[in-house]
Design brief:
The complex is a heterodimer.
Chain A (H helix, E strand, L loop, with lengths): L2 E6 H11 L4 E4 L6 H12 L6 E4 L3 H13 L4 E5 L2 H6 L3 H6 L5 E6 L13 H5 L6 E4 L3 H16 L7 E6 L7 E6 L2 H7 L26 H30 L6 E4 L6 E6 L2 H14 L4 E6 L1 E3 L3 H8 L4 E6 L10 H10 L7 E6 L9 H16 L8 E2 L6
Parallel strand pairs in A: 2-3, 2-4, 4-5, 5-7, 6-7, 10-11, 10-13, 13-14, 14-15
Antiparallel strand pairs in A: 1-8, 6-12, 9-11
Chain B lengths: L35 E5 L9 H5 L5 E3 L5 E3 L9 H5 L5 E5 L2
Antiparallel strand pairs in B: 1-4, 2-3
Classes of the chains: A alpha/beta, B alpha+beta.
Chain lengths: 393, 96
Amino acid sequence: MSKRIGMEVSIAAAEAVALCRIDVAAVYPITPSTHIAEHLSSIVSDGKLDAEFITVESEHSAMSGIMGASAAGARAFTATGSQGVMYMHEMLPVASAMRLPVVMAIGNRAVSGPLNILNDHGDIMMERDTGWISLFAQNGQEVIDMIIQAFRIAEHKDVMLPVNVNIDGFILTHMVEAMDMPDQDEIDRFLPPFVPYATLHPDRPVSMGTFAGNDIYTEISKSKDAALINAKKTILQIWKEWEKLFGRKYEPIESYRADDAEILLLTMGSMGETAEMAIDALRAKGMSVGLLKFKLWRPFPFDELKKAVKGAKILTVIDRAISYGGPGGPLGIEVRSALYDESSRPAIFNYIIGLGGRDVTPEDFMTILKSSASQAKKKAMKERYVIYGVRES
Amino acid sequence: MVNRKWPETWQEVNPGCMVFEPGSASEYHTGTWRSQKPVWNNEKCIKCGICYIFCPEGCIHEGADGYFSADMDYCKGCGICAHECWPAAISMVEEG
C-alpha cells in the first residue's frame, strides 16, 4: 500500500530513487537539485540501500560514471541542473548513442550568464537534441511517479535509452507537498531487476562506444532517431500499466477543461497547476478557454498534439526558455512546426515567461490569454514571440 | 549474403552500435589514410628500436635480421618514426 506523506519534493525524489533499488549513483551536487543528492547519499550511507554512491569531482564525471556503471550492468542514477547539465553535455549524446538506460533528475534552473540559481527551462532545452527521453513533472507526485517510471521505460528492451525527469527548480524541488509514496513491494512488482542488453564482462567481450566513420555514422544516427520515435509506444504502455496499478493517469499531453475550448493554453512543468487557476477564473467569466500540459517532450508527441488542438481557434504556447535570435521559445517553435502541415490549425501565439525564476501567476496567464484573443480578432500577432512582462522604457 | 564487416542498412545496426566480435578493429586498415610512407636506409640504421617504441600505431616490427619495418596495412604515414630516428635512417616518401 502506498503511504500518504508530507515531504520536500527533492527528498521524495531521492526516496523514489531508492525504491528503484539502484546499484550506482554518481552525483555532483548543484542547486537546486542538491537535496536529491544529499538525501540519496544519506540513504546509502545509512545502509538502507545497497548501492555505490560515487562522490565525483564534476558533472562530466557524474555522467561518465553512471554510463560506465550502466555498461557494466548496473541500474544507475544522477541528478543535476543548469551549469551541471551543461558540464555533462559532452556525455549526453554518448549515453543515448550507446543506448545506456540511465536516469537523470534535473532540477531545472536558468543558465549563466548572468549567474542565476532560480528556475527556468534554459538548461534542458539546450540538451534537447542529445537523444534522451525527456519528461516534465508538474507536481511532487509526478516527480515520484516519473522517476520510477523512468527506470522502467529506459530499461525496456524496446527502448534502451536514457531518460531525464525535469523538475522545476525551487518551485518543485524545494516545495513541501502531500504525496503518495508507493511501497517497496509495489515497486518491486512494477520494476523488475535490470536485465542489460549486453554488459562489459571479460567472459563475453563486447566493444561499446566504438568509432564510426562517414560510411556508417548516418545509419547509426537514423537508428538512434528511430529508437527514440519508437520509444513512445512503450512509454504509453508503461503509463497505462501505472494507471492500473496506482490510479494516476499519465499522458504525453494532459488536458484540463480543453475539450470544447476555443482558446488553448499550452504549458510545461509546474506552470500547469498555476495555469489551471487562470483557466477556472476565465471559464467562470464565460470565456471558452482550456489548458494543455506537455509531459512528454522527447519523443515529441505529434499525434497527441494534433488531436489536442483540433477545433481550437487559438493556441497560446508558453515557454520558459528562449532561443536567442531565433523564432521564439523551443516549445513554441516546435509546436508551430508540428502543426504547419495541418490544413486547419489554430492561430499560434508564443509567450516567453518566468525566465531566471521570475514569478508566474494565474493573473499572468489570464492577461496572456486575453491578449491572444484580442490579437487573434485583429488577425495578426505583432511579433513572432513575446517576452512577457519585460520592463520597457 | 555478403560477409560484411559492418552493417549496411540502418536496421542492421546493433543497439548502441555494440560490437560483439573482440579485436575487430584490426580488420579496419588504417593504412589507407597514408599519403607518405616511411622508408628505412639500413646502412644508417643502428637497430636501436626508437622507431618501434615511438610508433603510435604499434605497426613497426623487428625483423629476424634485427632491422625494422612497418606494416603497411596499418601505417598511417604520420612520420613520427622518421622524426625520432636520430641517425636519420628513415625518410618519408610520397606514395606513388
